[in-house]
Design a protein that fits this description.
By secondary structure, the protein is mainly beta. It contains no helices and 21 strands.
Length: about 325
């Protein structure tokens, strides 16, 4: 079985914000013969009718096996309306009862009509980075995703941000009624200028505005290691001439998954007793659009050092945690 998203352009100006009334759906297909097994979309032609599925889904689907039975039973994905979705799959059920879900968070202009302020028009092109988090005895999934207009990387109208949204029902199977009120931008703690931000265990999550330069945006997936989120951003270098070349600037951010705080002295400030906003990122030398960070685990690492982190050919850091990290384990009871 293969799961994928579908959608198409109606032919309108693709720089404008719009809702496509058809053509946006999730499909489940038999990989052996291509037979359609199940689909979700925004009309009754689909097995699951989701009214809010009005926007194209260009990014990948984050697939999880929550109950560890070898089958996918959870999907997270974003769309061009800035919506973050969750679907639950009930394996073994009939097609009409196979899956359910809805919008976990609406972080763009999906609920602002067809002529929203340009500042609020955020689009998700990336696959969400889903991470289980245990903090202060509270367990949740952190769904990490950044916004950015990939089709127009020189765009500087939108207030692009990186989001870490919390799903407080990581193990339960939810229905559409459970998604009646999605989280909004204002419900996430803004940590942009507060390096000591307190994000309570019951808060909906946090957000970091990408404001280091005009047009800064997230154009690749994030990756999380040892409670540390790594993601890149791109800032166009020549936004006044859309026809000319623009190498731009790339940054790699390294922040705490629980609150978006900087974790180490990344800007190499002398006598930096207190970490600052510039300790959240480093600026890369490469032009173009940098790829997402990757981790290398050489056999001969010096004692006390973590894996090597690379973005493209550039080394970011060899200490991705900045501190000792506690590990927890739970014994799985046999049925």
């Amino acid at each position: 079985v293969v799961l994928f998203a579908g959608g198409y352009d109606t032919g309108q100006d693709n720089r404008s914000f719009r809702e496509d009334s058809v053509g946006n759906a999730i499909f489940m297909v038999d990989l052996a013969d291509g037979e359609l097994i199940w689909s979700a979309g925004n009309d009754n032609s689909h097995d699951l009718n989701l009214e809010r599925m009005r926007f194209s889904i260009p990014g990948g689907l984050a697939l999880l096996d929550v109950d560890e039975d070898g089958n996918t039973d959870r999907l997270y994905f974003g769309d061009m309306g800035g919506q973050l979705w969750r679907l639950d799959v009930r394996n073994g059920q009939s097609v009409s009862n196979l899956a359910d879900g809805g919008v976990l968070a609406s972080l763009g202009a999906a609920d602002l009509g067809n002529s929203p302020p340009a500042r609020e028009v955020r689009r998700f092109y990336n696959t969400p980075d889903v991470v289980p988090v245990l903090t202060n005895s509270k367990f949740f999934f952190a769904i990490n995703i950044g916004s950015g207009y990939r089709a127009h990387p020189l765009d500087s109208d939108a207030n692009e941000q990186f989001f870490s949204v919390r799903d407080f029902n990581p193990l339960a199977v939810l229905s559409a009624d459970d998604f009646a009120t999605p989280f909004t931008v204002d419900q996430l703690i803004d940590v942009t200028t507060n390096v000591n931000a307190v994000v309570d265990q019951f808060d909906a999550g946090w957000r970091l505005q990408l404001v280091r330069g005009a047009g800064e945006k997230s154009l690749s997936e994030s990756v999380t290691f040892a409670n540390t989120v790594f993601f890149t951003s791109f800032q166009p270098g020549n936004i006044d001439n859309t026809c000319g070349p623009s190498d731009g600037f790339n940054r790699v951010y390294q922040v705490d998954i629980r609150n978006g705080r900087p974790q180490t002295n990344l800007d190499n400030s002398i006598d930096d007793d207190e970490l600052t906003e510039t300790d959240r990122f480093i600026t890369l030398r490469q032009g173009g659009i940098a790829p997402r960070p990757v981790f290398l685990f050489p056999e001969a690492l010096p004692p006390g050092e973590g894996p090597i982190v690379l973005s493209g050919t550039e080394r970011v850091t060899n200490d991705p945690t900045g501190s000792i990290v506690r590990s927890f384990w739970l014994q799985r009871e046999q049925p």
